[in-house]
Amino acid sequence: MTNIENYLHDGADWQAQAVLAYIRNVQEYATEERDRKTPQRRNLFGSGLKVGRFENCREQGYVLSVQLWAEETKDGEFKQRNWAFFEHRNSDELVVFKSDADTINTPTIDEIFGDRGKYDYDKSFSYGKILECGKYLLDEIRDFFTENLK
What we know:
By secondary structure, the protein is of the alpha+beta class. Helices cover 32% and strands 24% of the residues. It has one domain. It has 5 helices and 5 strands, in the order αααββββαβα. Strands 1-2-3-4-5 form a 5-stranded antiparallel sheet. Strand 3 and strand 4 (94-99) form a beta hairpin. The longest helix is centred in the C-terminal third of the chain and has 19 residues, at 130-148.
């Protein structure tokens, strides 16, 4: 056994960890509608949806990334979407930043923020709104697939 404060501790805040746990459990929702209509099945948790750590000093969370190869997309172009989510250190809100940075590895803070500041996030959730944030991210992922897959 280990002390509870050290168990599953990777540096991310508890809210981001809870959102990630929720998404890990229900991630197939993101492709549910598409799977019913077409014979294609894309396992987001496997090859489609990737997760990495987001690190900005005291703001620690995760980045979800989806990459679609050119032959998979409607317009024949490579697509990547990233969603960083973490607890904002000044407000304790959960915040989400979207980015279309094309990266091989987990996008860095510069690739996530781009020219924006840390208050220019795409979506925020009040402290403790884990499910709301998780559902928002799953809707975003599903919409990205729906808009871009052939």
